[in-house]
Amino acid sequence: MALAMVRRNVITHYSKFASSWSVLSRHSSIQEPLLASVSSFHSQSVGGGSGGGGGGLPSYMRGAVFWEPNKPLSIEEFNMPRPKAGEVLIKTKACGVCHSDLHVMKGEIPFSSPSVLGHEITGEVVEHGALSDSKTIERLPVGSRVVGSFIMPCGNCSYCSKGHDDLCEAFFAYNRAKGTLYDGETRLFLRNSGKPVFMYSMGGLAEYCVVPANGVSVLPESLPYPKSAILGCAVFTAYGAMAHAAQVRPGDSVAVIGTGGVGSSCLQIARAFGASDIIAVDVNDEKLQKAKIFGATHTVNSAKEDPIEKIYEITGGKGVDVAVEALGKTQTFAQCTLSVKDGGKAVMIGLAQAGSLGEVDINRLVRRKIQVIGSYGGRARQDLPKLIRLAETGIFNLDHAVSRTYTFEEADKAFQDLNEGKIIGRAVIEIM
After folding, report:
1. Are residues 205 and 333 in the same domain?
2. Is the bond preceding 114 in cis, omega lying within 30 degrees of 0?
3. Which of 333, 355, 374 delimits the end of a domain?
4. Kind and range of the H or E element at 406?
5. Cα(382)–Cα(166) distance, rounded to whole angstroms?
6. What is the 3-state secondary structure (H, E, C) of 137-191?
7. Does 224 share its domain with 320?
8. Any idea which GO molecular function terms this record carries (predicted)?
9. Looking at residue 26, what DSSP letter applies?
10. Are 307 and 281 within 8 A, CB to CB?
11. What is d(CA 113, CA 276) in angstroms, rounded to the nearest whole number?
12. CA 261/CA 240 separation, integer angstroms
């Protein structure tokens, strides 16, 4: 409480000082001697909300901006973003290269622009927003190594209150619909013009990003920043699909259609959950070969043979208990639903071009009790700490999952390579 009162007093004093400055600035004879004093005062007082931090932060940062579909990302300078209550400012260390961002870049999924994409990050907490809860500051002290989930739960809506962070109303209403955080405002403003720039999740393709604290978990020293970034989306999405949607049990048979970053993570999670037959389906022999490292017991190249027939052959004519579609295509949607046994679960996690429709045999769905389930991600507050522990103990192998790294300046090239199918598994952009 005392810190909050001091901060309010400092801000009030500074606001009055700034108002006086607007008058003094009209008198050139006294403007220059005061300039250094004002700059010094700003650098000492504007950082460090409740809980500390902010000292020594630069006045601006760089971020990769998406301007319009099918145009390259450009690196621009931004005013330093500031966290508000319940948020943390993170010095970004790494950001994953995900197909969700690529869908936006290609105009397949509409999103506000200009924007900073990137939603799979690791970094260091450098500041808390003013009036943040003391428990949040205690859990995430300044200097903490952290990983952020792409679904950033508000913690207060009807779904979050029931533990369903993956359905957070504020996340979908504000971030995905408007490109803002939960007060309806972005935290990103271009340095040269002050123009607002929207945020896809936390806008992780930048040197600093603001994240709601509910979407952040502590990363142990034993896990490296770059490879751990994929825990916040690729692994997080796979875990949500396997644990909550499919509810995979030991001995279940599982087919994963599409073995990119998310699909290959599904293979590792299925193995960790004790699945028996784990069938990887793809059109790329190199991806299928690596799928065996991730836990696949069988591989199917769907460009060379019928994947449905092959899955039934492998499972003795029954089909799998769980099939996962990780591509977001109408053809693979159908393959997924047709690959499961009676009473089986077809889980859809691949995003498709806006307006895409999938077909399902209604009579088979009804008579054979087929379950078609959508799954967008995990539950940040409950699941992210579990995933970190799986990686820390080696049950989930980050070294196998991350196949390539790029520099921040190569961000656009990373997504070009992803679009051209040159990335096996998951790639990560190292930022700082």
Report:
1. no
2. yes
3. 374
4. strand 402-407
5. 11
6. HHHCCCCCEEEECCCCCCCCCCCHHHCCHHHCHHHHHHHHHHCCCCCCCCCEEEC
7. no
8. oxidoreductase activity; zinc ion binding
9. T
10. yes
11. 45
12. 15
pLDDT digits (tens, 9 = 90+) for 96-136: 999 999 999 999 999 999 999 999 999 999 999 999 999 99
Q: Tell me, yes or no, whether 302 and 414 share the same domain.
A: no
Q: Are 353 and 365 in contact (CB under 8 A)?
A: no
Q: Which domain holds residue 103?
A: 60-233+379-430
How far apart CA 145 and CA 153 sit, in angstroms, is: 20
Query: 64 with 152, same domain?
Result: yes
Whether 266 and 196 map to the same domain: the answer is: no
Measure the CA–CA gap between 249 and 344, rounded to whole angstroms. 13
Per-residue burial over 42-61, b = 16 or more CB atoms within 10 Å of its CB, e = otherwise: eeeebbbbbbbbbeebeeeb
How does pLDDT run across 201-254, given as a tens digit for each residue? 999 999 999 999 999 999 999 999 999 999 999 999 999 999 999 999 999 999
* CATH number, domain with residue 228: 3.90.180.10
Residue 108 belongs to a domain: yes
Identify the three-state secondary structure at position 345.
strand
Q: Determine the length of the chain.
A: 432
258 and 357 in a common domain = yes
| Identity of the residue numbered 322 | V
Same domain, 410 and 336: no
Element holding 412 (H helix, E strand): helix 411-419
Structure tokens at 195: 């123009």
Q: How many domains does the chain have?
A: 2
| Cα-based distances in Å from 166 to 181, 192, 261, 372 | 16, 37, 20, 18
Place of tokens 């397949």: 108
For residues 204 and 206, give the distance between their C-alpha atoms in angstroms, rounded to a whole number.
Answer: 5
φ/ψ of residue 205, rounded to 5: -85, 60
Cβ(38)–Cβ(21) below 8 Å: yes
Angle at which helices 285-294 and 261-272 cross, to 10° = 30
Structure-derived torsion over alpha carbons of residues 64, 66, 67, 72, reported in degrees to the nearest 10:
80
- Write down the pTM of the prediction: 0.86
Separation of alpha carbons 150 and 158, rounded Å: 19
